[in-house]
Amino acid sequence: MKKIGFLSFGHWSASPHSQTRSASDALHQAIDLAVAAEELGADGAYFRVHHFARQHSSPFPLLAAIGARTSRIEIGTGVIDMRYENPLYMAEDAGSADLISEGRLQLGISRGSPEQVIDGWRYFGYQPAEGQTDADLARSHTEVLLEVLKGHGFAQPHPRPMFPNPPGLLRVEPHSPGLRERLWWGSGSNATARWAAKLGMNLQSSTLKDDESGEPLHVQQRKQIEAFHEAWRAEVHEREPRVSVSRSIFPIVTDLDAMYFGDESGSEDTIGHIDAHTRAIFGRSYAAEPDVLVKQLAEDEAIAAADTLLLTVPNQLGVDYNTHVLDSVLRHVAPELGWR
């Protein structure tokens, strides 16, 4: 059994073929797709966060809105770039969204990826300390967030407050118990997977990873997941962790599916560079008739090792079509693989 959700980047454009032509379209359609996914029996609605781009950027209003419109489905991110975040303000926003959804928030965070502008986090008022990198900046923000989400008081109360205070040091409010255990780290390497395990975060691994061995993506991810679990066991955490992987999976069951994705049937992993120093491997798309997909996906070692599968959706094709894609996976593929 696996939890199966979708992951949307929330693109919008004025392209003649786009059904998501504005930021308003992207946000409203994201809510509608989450509602439809819950009705289908899917388990999660996740959203990527990018700044300075025509994509989702401020996740908490969206997550709160989905939380108010749904009752069961997990709502989350994959991922929020921590270089841009004030961890205390983020804890307040996340706590509010989690309480609105009654504890369904799954908060994926990370260092992020190369953005639309150079050092975009500087425009948000953040920069690494002397001798540190932007990755260090993201991890330091993350460590503060993790500590704040424990819910312990740390701020000295004013001796003459406007409103009465509880005794002792104060924490940021609202606090949502249990949210600390529902943080995920979006890891692009084995080393950061081990770091996430050490700090007690769940693991998200996407369709992009540092190429550390030259092997296919799914093999490298399986080894990454094993490294994560090994590091988790060494820390003797009190709970079992969760692991998700992302995949582009398109069952071809209609002529429209074939028109959109028939050319992807021979897709393979590709190699590229996400910056001047990092060689990365990009995962293939899976697009074929359901019986072929079942055979292909049964050989994906990372999916087998994960408990959660996030299906990347082409959100600009609209809510109806993406609902159809999710339904096709849940109906024609998941049962044959024992995921349902």
From TrEMBL:
Record-annotated Luciferase-like domain positions: 9-255
Classification via Gene3D superfamilies: Luciferase-like domain
Gene Ontology MF term list: oxidoreductase activity, acting on paired donors, with incorporation or reduction of molecular oxygen
InterPro entries (alphabetical): Bact_Lucif_Oxidored, Luciferase-like_dom, Luciferase-like_sf
GO annotation, cellular component aspect: cytosol
Protein's UniProt name: LLM class flavin-dependent oxidoreductase
Species this protein is from: Saccharopolyspora rhizosphaerae
